[in-house]
Every structure is written in structure tokens, then in C-alpha cells.
Write a structure and sequence with these properties.
- Strand 3 and strand 4 form a beta hairpin.
- Strands 1-2-3-4-5-6-8-7 form an eight-stranded mixed beta sheet, with helices on both faces.
- It is globular, with a radius of gyration of 16 Å.
- It has 184 residues and is an alpha+beta fold.
- The two termini are 29 Å apart.
């Protein structure tokens, strides 16, 4: 499959000593499902960024991805070689009156953050959402995740509300920020 976008990522200080890796941003395909699930599981097990603490079972993950492909929902992955290191998807709401809205989910494996992969994934996924005539994209992000909040704000997302003490995990409460962007 041809890459939708190919870019050279900016390196963090920790990786600056080695050669700069190339990554590709591609629409997800059935061949990516296992790698996508591994990346999803890696981020989920951090217990900080996603609402679940491990990836869903393989069958559930496969059904989600295959539905996104069949319905042409924007869903992209970042590949380094053959390895999935991040993803971004926007799933349109199905209820009448809300089908103009999509819900964004994304993640980048911790060992690949700070290299522009999140930005590249957002670029591709938001462009695909706009091409589908979605006019609103919304998301939820933990208040403590300042890096993600800043990334979303840099892409035109605005804070619309706060779910106070929305999650209680590992002995502490966390607020969730509701953000959205209108697509023109």
C-alpha cells in the first residue's frame, strides 16, 4: 500500500545520537490489526492516557478495525518499518441528528513520542474526516495530559467542558477535559 504521507520525524534528545527513523502514515488495513492492537495495549498499560487498562481482546479489536475499513471511517496508523507505533481514528456518531460528529481516539507508543508522529496522524485523520463531510470532531483527554491537550489545541480543538473526578484509578481522581474542533 502506498503511504499517504511519508515524513522524517523530529528526534527527541534521547534519540538524537542515532539515525533519524522514517515513519509512514497509512490508512489502516487488515494486515495492521495485530500491530495496532500491540501499540494500543502498550499505551493502555501505562494506565495514564486511555480509558481502558489493556487492549480489548483480539476479536473485538479486529471487529472494530474491519468496521472502520468497511464504513470508510478515518483510521490511520504510523509505521516504522513494519511496526505500528501509533494510531488515530475518528468514528462518526450513528444517532440521527449527530452524524455530522466524529469521536477522535489516538495514541503513540511511549518509545516513539516527541518525534512528530502524533501531529502527522492528526493531519491525515482530520483531513479524511473533513473529506467525509464531518463538521465536528470531539474527544476526551485527561486533564493531567498537558502534552496531548497542547497538541489538540494547536490543531484548533477548544475545551468545552470538564468531567470532574471522572476517573478513580490507583487511589486518585482525574478530571476529563471535553474538547472539540469544528471543521470548515
Amino acid at each position: 500500500m502506498k503511504p499517504l504521507q511519508r515524513t522524517r520525524g523530529a528526534l527527541s534528545d534521547a534519540a538524537a545520537a542515532g539515525p533519524s527513523p522514517d515513519y509512514q502514515i497509512l490508512p489502516i488495513a487488515p494486515a495492521h490489526i495485530d500491530g495496532y492492537r500491540r501499540a494500543l495495549d502498550s499505551v493502555a498499560r501505562e494506565r495514564r492516557h486511555l480509558s481502558f487498562l489493556e487492549a480489548p481482546p483480539s476479536e473485538q479489536t479486529r471487529a472494530f478495525v474491519m468496521n472502520n475499513i468497511a464504513m470508510r471511517h478515518p483510521h490511520f496508523v504510523a509505521l516504522v518499518g513494519r511496526e505500528i507505533v501509533g494510531w488515530c481514528d475518528i468514528v462518526p456518531l450513528g444517532q440521527r441528528g449527530f452524524t455530522h460528529t466524529g469521536v477522535l481516539g489516538m495514541g503513540v507508543r511511549p518509545d516513539w513520542r516527541g518525534r512528530g508522529i502524533g501531529k502527522a496522524l492528526l493531519n491525515a485523520t482530520i483531513a479524511a474526516a473533513a473529506a467525509l463531510d464531518l463538521t465536528r470532531v470531539e474527544l476526551e483527554v485527561y486533564a493531567a495530559n498537558a502534552v496531548a491537550r497542547a497538541l489538540y489545541q494547536s490543531y484548533g480543538f477548544v475545551e468545552e467542558g470538564i468531567k470532574r473526578k471522572a476517573r478513580y484509578l490507583d487511589g486518585r481522581y482525574e478530571d476529563i477535559i471535553i474538547m472539540a474542533r469544528l471543521l470548515d
